[in-house]
Amino acid sequence: MKTGTRKQEIVHVASQLFKEKGYNAVSMRDIAKALGMKAASLYNHISGKQELLATLIMEVAYEFTSGMETVLQQQSSPIQKIEQLIEIHIDITVNFSEGLAALNNDWMHLENEDLKAFVAMRESYEANFRDIIKAGIASEEIKPRHPEVILFSMLSTLRTLHLWYEKRGKLDVNILKKDMVAVLLKGIV
Q1: Of 58, 96, 101, 111, which has the fewest beta carbons less than 10 angstroms from its beta carbon?
Q2: Domain HTH tetR-type spans what residues (predicted)?
Q3: By three-state DSSP, how is residue 23 classified?
């Protein structure tokens, strides 16, 4: 039984192919073949491969942006906010793995307004995360380390989590959240 619209089905199949082969290596024919249809028929539902990529990436980018907005509105400590952001990254990893792969690996193939919108969202997200880290340093909740190093360390780990998570047999999400928060905030010593 099929669920969702034909366009959603096309986006889903394209996301799997983009994750497997990369955006540049996937053609409209590849997508059509995976769907059991002719490439020309795809254009009845989408304008092209660029629309598929933008749909995937922007869906995930909006999830991150929405999560950050929720965290920023809360009256909680910087450490609690960072914990929530780590958990949001984990939830997005689990629920949007193909879109996250496209966001991480293929965002630079976005064009025009989609690229501008994505870059603006990413820069805003990182700036907000950096401000939370700086607030944590100022309140002495976080050790006085360079905020850029902290941000890079956290985001590098979180952005590639989907690769590790997939290889590890889908570890229980609650355990992953608890342990990732502990390791990223408290280290291993």
Answers
A1: 111
A2: 4-64
A3: helix
